[in-house]
Amino acid sequence: MAITNADTKVVTGKVRLSYTHVFQPQAVDGGDEKYSTAILIPKTDKETLRRIQAAVNAAKEAGKGKWGGKIPANCKTPLRDGDEERPDDEAYKGHYFLNASSKNKPGIAKPIGKDAAGKTKFAEITDTTEVYSGCYAKVSLNFYAFDAKGNRGVAAGLNNLVKVQDGDFLGGRSSLNDDFSDVEFEDDFDGEEDFLN
Questions:
Q1: Read out DSSP for 89-111?
Q2: What would the pLDDT profile of 15-68 be if each residue is shown by its tens digit?
Q3: How many domains is the chain partitioned into structurally?
Q4: What local confidence, expressed as pLDDT, does residue 1 receive?
Q5: What is the pTM for the complete model shown?
Q6: DSSP β-ladder status, 120-124 and 15-27
Q7: Rounded to a whole number, what is the largest CA-CA distance in the chain?
Q8: CATH number of the domain encompassing residue 130
Q9: Domain of 119?
Q10: Are residues 159 and 142 in contact, defined by beta-carbon separation less than 8 angstroms?
C-alpha cells in the first residue's frame, strides 16, 4: 500500500505551545534557521495521540526507501513523555510533547465564526505578541522520515496553527495586565509636561 500525505498528516486537538518561534525563524545549535514550536499534548487526548502514532508509523513505512528497505532498530520518533523527560517542569506534567519545525513560515490564524455553509472562517494573526509560549492552539503537522549523518528517524513538520485560547506565559514572562493591574496611573500622564524641562 502506497503511503500518501494524508497518512502522515495530523491536525491536533487543543495543545499548548512552548519554545514558540512562529513569526521569526531561529537557528538552534548552529543549524538552519527554522520556524518552530514545541507542542504539549495532554495525555488525556487519546485521539490526537492515536492519530500521531498512526502518522509516525506511516512515515516509518514511507522512510524504508531512505533507510535501505527496512525500518532501523534505533529509529528516533518525535513524541516524548513530559513526565519522564521534564519532571521538574510543571507545564510538561501530564503531557506528551514533540518539537515541530519548518523552513517555511506556518499559516497562523484564529477562528472568527462560520460562513453561510457552516464552515469555520479564520482571520490571519499578524501581531507577534498574540501567539506565544503558553497559549493554546490546534496545529497541523506532517511527519516525515529523515536520515542525517547516521541519525535515522521520524520528525514533525509544522504546517499551520490556529490559536484557540490564551494561557499563562511559559518561561517566566508575566503579562502586562498582571504586572500593572493594581498600579494607579491617573496622575502620571497629562500629555502637557516634558519631564526634561
A1: -GGGTTEEEEEEEESSPPEEEEE
A2: 999 999 999 999 877 788 999 999 999 999 999 999 999 999 999 999 998 898
A3: 1
A4: 58
A5: 0.84
A6: unpaired
A7: 78
A8: 2.40.50.140
A9: 5-165
A10: yes
